[in-house]
Amino acid sequence: MDAFNLLKADHRKVEDLFSQLESASGQAKMRVFEQIKMELELHTHIEEKFFYPALKKPKQTHDLTLEAYEEHDVVKKLLQQMSRAKSATEEWEAQAKVLQENVEHHVEEEENELFPDAAAALSEEDIETLGEQMEAEKERKQHTASSKSSSKKKSANKSASKTKSASTAPKRARAGKSGSKSSGSKRTKKSTKKSRR
Ligand SMILES: [Fe+2]
After folding, report:
1. CB 37 within 8 A of CB 83
2. Where along the chain do its domains lie?
3. What value does the CA radius of gyration of the chain take, rounded to a whole number of Å?
4. Residue 16 to residue 26: CA distance in whole angstroms
5. Which one, 18, 23, 40, 178, has the greatest CB density within 10 A?
6. Cβ distance 36 to 76 under 8 Å?
7. Among 37-41, 81-85, 161-165, 179-183, which stretch is predicted with the lowest mean pLDDT?
8. Which residues, 6 or more positions from 142, have their beta carbon under 8 angstroms from its beta carbon?
9. What spacing in Å lies between the alpha carbon of 166 and ligand 1's midpoint?
């Protein structure tokens, strides 16, 4: 896939996530936000690692590329700020709106100005190679992220199964004759808290 098509596909994906964010509420909203954050971090990373360095040199694309770096910084700061929230407060909603507007502006500028200038400044081969490099980097990052999260899940499952067996123990103890097994309840609370993190 060439660089433009790859980046445009990313843009459409994020647009779709932003419309999901608008209609979601409660914890579902925070989960959509986590997805947006992940997508944007990955997208800005591949652009900054391959695409922008190639566009910084040619005169036609130099200024817009510098502007794009700055816009990325604004987006990253907002993402960091927003990810600290546990729920969608009024301030968080305002930040989400600003984030969306920033991303929309950035996408528009890239697709309508930077990409056409880049198509003029770079060869078709360059654009194809950049696309391949960004695609490979995306896969590498996603693979690392998914193996990290699967090992996290594994340990969460472990503690969840511990929690399950521990939480049934006091019930049995209450229902049965002996109360000696109820010491598990304190541990249950702790491990439940841990597994939610
Ligand atoms: Fe970008």
Report:
1. yes
2. 3-122
3. 23
4. 19
5. 40
6. no
7. 179-183
8. 42
9. 49
CA 185 / ligand 1 centre spacing (Å)? 50
How far apart are the CA of 107 and the centre of ligand 1, in A?
7
Q: Is the pLDDT of residue 117 over 80?
A: yes
For the record, the structure tokens of 66 come out as 């510098």
What DSSP string describes 44-69? HHHIIIIIHHHHHSSHHHHHHHHHHH
Residues 29, 7, 39: CA angle, nearest 5 degrees: 25
Q: Cα dihedral angle (139, 144, 150, 154), rounded to 10 degrees?
A: 160
Number of Cβ within 10 Å of residue 187's Cβ equals 14
Percent of the chain with pLDDT over 90: 71
CA distances from 50 to 63, 131, 151, 176 (A): 17, 9, 30, 65
Contact 122, 50 (CB under 8 A): no
Does the pTM surpass 0.90? The reply is no
Q: Compute the distance from residue 100 Cα to the ligand 1 centre, in Å.
A: 13
Assign a CATH topology to domain 3-122: Four Helix Bundle (Hemerythrin (Met), subunit A) (1.20.120)
Q: What ranges in 24-114 are assigned the alpha helix state H? A: 26-46, 52-56, 59-83, 90-109
